[in-house]
Design a protein that fits this description.
The chain is an alpha+beta fold and 108 residues long. The chain has a single domain, classed as Glutaredoxin, CATH 3.40.30.10. 29% of the residues lie in helices and 24% in strands. The chain has three helices and six strands, in the order βαβαββββα. It has a four-stranded mixed sheet with strand order 2-1-3-4, covered by helices on one side. A two-stranded antiparallel ribbon has the order 5-6. The longest helix is centred in the first third of the chain and has 14 residues. The N and C termini lie close together (12 Å).
């Protein structure tokens, strides 16, 4: 039996970009006809940031793996995250980055 694919959106309230990221996750899942369970995880304390090795808000992980292959494990940080994708800087992961993560990390 195939295990369910889990997409986690880890976020902190101080960075509002998680809402756009959640919308984009839904769009990509629909575009790719991907059956996924989407979990929102609010990181509200330094202890929780440490436990989740949170690199900043928003963070998208598919089956436990960050969609950005350049991400390194961190101690945990509550703050806004910056993404680099194809030479540009973003305050949240662009749709193409999320799509690439889906294609690379989903269990078939």
């Amino acid at each position: 039996m195939k295990k369910e694919n889990v997409v986690e959106l880890l976020y902190a309230d101080l960075c509002p970009f998680w809402k756009e990221t959640l919308k984009t996750i839904h769009e990509v899942a629909t575009d790719l006809n991907a059956k996924v369970l989407i979990r929102k995880v609010k990181v509200s304390s330094q202890a929780k940031a440490k436990r989740f090795k949170f690199p900043g808000s928003p963070t998208v992980r598919i089956n436990g793996v960050d969609i950005d292959p350049a991400t390194r494990e961190v101690e945990g940080y509550i703050g806004c995250r910056v993404y680099m994708y194809e030479g540009a800087t973003y305050e949240f992961p662009p749709k193409e980055m999320i799509k690439s993560g889906f294609e690379r990390l989903l269990r078939k």
